[in-house]
Design a protein that fits this description.
- The structure holds two protein chains of two kinds.
- By secondary structure, chain A is mostly helical.
- Chain A has a two-stranded antiparallel sheet with strand order 2-3.
- In chain A, helix 1 runs antiparallel to helix 2.
- Chain B is α+β, with helices and mostly antiparallel strands.
- The chains are: A mainly alpha, B alpha+beta.
- Chains A and B meet through helix 1, strand 1, helix 2 and helix 3 of A and strand 1, helix 1, strand 5, helix 2 and strand 6 of B.
- Strand 1 of chain A pairs parallel with strand 10 of chain B.
């Protein structure tokens, strides 16, 4: 049975499967296209390959830093809460790890720790302002 | 906010199209469309398009826009069969949606709806756990083991050709393994699917990237089949299992609409 939870991730009684990035990739790459003068494809229907990857990378970056959200975007919605559990590639072993775990704790695969997690461990009193891990590719 | 009426046409308003449905089911949508707009329905006979006013400055590929697209289709999918449009299709007005899409393409749209009726898409991506599979190859292949041992600790310049040979041997083993494992996985899952679409593998370590069209009732079966495969292969394989989704991969065509 399909549940009626209004979350971005596909949901069933067995629990959600798949990450936000995977869902987005399907939406941008697949689906019915209407090819005619009646349609104005503002986004560019012909988004393919590397362009999708670039879009995903910029989404991930935007979500991570809370940037570039259009004014009026309600960030309390379930969709945005899903964004919070976006997965990130570990800079050391490249495996996909929930971004929060990767930033705040460590990579469960290879043990890589972010500067932020290390600083947090060193003096577990006050968190410094978030330091970007890497320069986002655009 | 401008709302469409079944008998009226709003001029000079672009309309974003989410998808086409054949059975309206509940007409109330709780999911909001792009820019938090209300989702409306444009009808022609038994067909309907899900639309919302498109922002005048277009609908760029931003995370909120893409999320909204999926949320609307996901809600629609709960109660009826839906033909999901790819992100980014905008019509110049509601009349174009009704006449040039729903009326002019009604035969094709009904065929597509019949093809995916009562079915959902699952995407399965399977990759090697790279360290484990390499260890496995080394453990299984004596020739590779011997060659590796003869290279270990030697300067790179002196062992260049050996290193290339080692890489080629590992690659050959990896290919053979991939063929075997992919065959095993597809043999287990294909009997559950009405249709399959092969996607491109995205990395060297990816074995499969395949979409399955599954009856909505067969979801627990494919869940179990995937879980069984996961158990069978253990840590060696990483399964990325996504669904249920509207059948994006099975309506992945371009409708050529007359001017």
């Amino acid at each position: 049975m399909i549940t009626s939870q209004p979350t971005l991730q596909p949901t069933r009684e067995g629990g959600a499967r798949g990450s936000l990035a995977d869902v987005i990739e399907v939406i941008l790459d697949k689906g019915l296209v209407i090819n005619a003068d009646i349609t104005v494809s503002v986004a560019g229907v012909e988004l393919l390959g590397i362009k999708i990857r670039a879009a995903l990378a910029s989404f991930a970056t935007a979500a991570r830093y809370g940037l570039e959200f259009p004014s009026g975007t309600n960030i309390e919605t379930s969709a945005w809460q899903q964004v919070q559990v976006l997965k990130e590639a570990c800079p050391q072993c490249s495996k996909q790890v929930p971004a929060h775990e990767l930033l705040e704790e460590s990579c469960p695969w290879c043990g890589w720790q972010s500067a932020r997690a290390k600083a947090h461990q060193a003096k577990s009193s006050h968190l410094p302002t978030p330091v970007p891990l890497a320069v986002p590719e655009t | 906010m401008i709302s469409p009426r079944s008998d009226g046409v709003t001029e000079a308003q672009l309309w974003y199209i989410y998808g086409v449905v054949g059975d309206l089911g509940s007409c109330e949508f709780t999911a909001r469309g792009l820019r938090d707009e209300r989702v409306s329905i444009v009808r022609h006979a038994d067909l309907a398009a899900l639309v919302s006013p498109a922002p005048p400055d277009g609908c760029p590929v931003t995370l909120p826009n893409v999320v909204a697209h999926q949320l609307v289709l996901q809600e629609a999918m709960l109660s009826r069969t839906v033909l999901p449009l790819r992100f980014g299709v905008v019509a110049p007005n509601l009349n174009a949606v009704r006449e040039q899409l729903l009326r002019a393409q009604s035969t094709r749209l009904r065929e597509l709806l019949a093809h995916v009726a009562g079915k959902v898409e699952f995407v399965l991506k399977v990759s090697w756990h790279d360290q484990l599979v390499l260890q496995e190859i080394v453990a299984e292949n004596r020739e590779i083991r011997t060659l590796r041992d003869s290279i270990l600790g030697q300067p790179e310049q002196q062992t260049r050709s050996k290193r290339i040979l080692l890489g080629q041997m590992v690659d050959a083993d990896l290919r053979a393994k991939r063929k075997r494992v992919a065959g095993r996985i597809l043999a287990a899952l294909s009997p559950l699917a009405h249709a399959m679409e092969n996607g491109k593998t995205e990395t060297e370590m990816m074995i499969l990237n395949v979409s399955f069209l599954i009856s909505a009732e067969a979801q627990t079966e494919i869940d179990k089949a995937v879980a069984d495969l996961q158990q069978e292969f253990g840590q060696r394989l990483m399964f990325n299992y996504l669904g249920p989704l509207p059948p994006y991969s099975f309506v992945n065509i371009s409708l050529e609409v007359d001017r």
